[in-house]
Write a sequence for this structure.
């Protein structure tokens, strides 16, 4: 049974969650359109471009698990505040970076702060909304975060063409200030779990296990697979990943409880996430680079090419989230990625010189519709399959899977394009993205099960943070709980 119309506290929580995730997802999207300008000023070509993206994703993806545990132990609001301040500081470090190496290091630090934002923000939603109301709230959250991820190139393009690429990082300070103000209005007493230990060895193994293979994948184009500088990090990274899984299976309080994957929808949803989010990351990366470096579009025009995806997400994500709450997520998660994959196959017709209206736009529209039908049902299926007490770590695992899949996808781009992106390489990447999306659709169709249409109502409302809202003269009694 869903909640009545959202209270003021719920509305504030929803806005805080959306904006906090918006900052992290915006940075993931806005960076792509700035990559050509960064490489022109700082040098390094495709390898530097991959590192600027993946340095952020390595720390983000590996530490989201740690951040999820920290939010449960230390409190979601506290971790959210620390992440916001850290993200603002590291964004300024990126904006003032004098060299490519400094920018890459700053991006890695920025990923650490970003890891604190997403799990805490989504866990706020799952602890404040129930049933169909939760599905709708997740749909609204998805609309905001997906728009940030996809519309980021538009903002980035405008900034790159007008005031320079450094402002794509400096602009983060504004939404961070807004969120901190909202947190000042929403006074919250965090709920913390006593006696919980943090698995720091597991976190270290996860970071090393991702960094080694990613380094090998990116640098193999310049050093070759036979180089010890490639083979050693690759082998050590794989061993660290194996040790991480062993640690999670044997630790008393693991970062990633493997028992979660015994839940069918959680396991199938995360497998689908692996393929779908790898496709999203690679697709956004390659389209923006192709439009600027091969088709010769200015940064703003290259970013505008993806605007239909953002518009479709704004209009449809919340609606699809509500439908998934009513009818179940399975077929939305199956047909959505399949349609998005077909959209990428339509883009393979692109030629030089490029005609955007006939060669790219139809595929982009189909991709946007499929994406809108996918993301909210996917998130709702995964988080709805586990208990609310596990919502923090559950959302952290899902977000880690999404970021790590994108990280590996970006690292693999060089294998398909070579050291120089051209039309043929662009087509190869488009086909690979379509295949990933279709696999995600097949996993969803075979693995996801819809929940009962009429589940038994809760006898008590879901647990909430101790929330009180700053009182105003016209409402002296504050906010009434639903």
């Amino acid at each position: 049974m869903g909640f009545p119309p959202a209270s003021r506290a719920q509305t504030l929580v929803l806005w805080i969650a959306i904006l906090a995730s918006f900052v992290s997802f915006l940075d993931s999207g806005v960076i792509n359109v700035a990559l050509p300008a960064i490489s022109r000023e700082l040098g390094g070509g495709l390898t530097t471009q991959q590192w600027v993206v993946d340095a952020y994703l390595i720390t983000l993806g590996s530490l989201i698990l740690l951040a999820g545990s920290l939010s449960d132990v230390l409190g979601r609001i506290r971790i959210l505040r620390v992440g916001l301040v850290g993200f603002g500081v590291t964004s300024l470090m990126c904006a003032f970076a004098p060299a490519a190496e400094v920018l890459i290091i700053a991006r890695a630090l920025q990923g650490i702060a970003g890891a604190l934002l997403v799990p805490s923000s989504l866990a706020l939603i799952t602890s404040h909304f129930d049933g169909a109301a939760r599905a709708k709230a997740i749909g609204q959250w998805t609309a905001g975060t997906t728009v940030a991820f996809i519309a980021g190139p538009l903002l980035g393009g405008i900034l790159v063409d007008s005031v320079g690429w450094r402002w794509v990082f400096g602009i983060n300070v504004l939404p961070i200030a807004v969120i901190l103000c909202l947190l000042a209005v929403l006074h919250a007493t965090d709920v913390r779990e006593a006696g919980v230990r943090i698995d720091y060895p597991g976190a270290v193994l996860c970071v090393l296990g991702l960094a080694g293979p990613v380094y090998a994948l990116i640098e193999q184009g310049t050093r070759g697979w036979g180089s010890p500088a490639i083979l050693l990090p690759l082998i050590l990274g794989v061993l660290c990943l194996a040790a991480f899984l062993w640690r999670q299976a044997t630790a008393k309080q693991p970062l990633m409880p493997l028992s979660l994957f015994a839940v069918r929808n959680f396991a199938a949803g995360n497998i689908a996430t692996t393929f779908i989010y790898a496709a999203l990351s690679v697709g956004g990366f390659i389209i923006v680079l192709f439009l600027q470096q091969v088709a010769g579009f200015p940064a703003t025009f290259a970013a505008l090419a993806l605007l239909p995806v953002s518009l479709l997400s704004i209009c449809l994500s919340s609606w699809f989230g509500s439908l998934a709450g009513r009818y179940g997520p399975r077929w939305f998660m199956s047909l959505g990625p399949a349609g998005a994959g077909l959209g990428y196959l339509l883009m393979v017709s692109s030629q030089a010189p490029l005609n955007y209206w006939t060669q790219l736009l139809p595929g982009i529209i189909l991709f946007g519709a499929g994406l809108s039908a996918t993301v909210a049902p996917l998130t709702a299926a995964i988080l709805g399959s586990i208990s609310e007490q596990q919502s923090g770590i559950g959302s952290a695992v899902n977000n880690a899977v999404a970021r790590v899949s994108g990280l590996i996808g970006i690292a693999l781009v060089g294998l398909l394009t070579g050291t120089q992106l051209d039309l043929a390489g662009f087509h190869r990447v488009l086909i690979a993205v379509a295949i990933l999306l279709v696999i995600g659709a097949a996993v969803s169709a075979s693995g996801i099960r819809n929940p009962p249409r009429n589940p038994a109502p809760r006898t008590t409302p879901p647990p909430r943070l101790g929330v009180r809202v700053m009182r105003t003269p016209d409402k002296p009694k504050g906010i009434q709980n639903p």
In short: The first helix runs from residue 8 to 42.
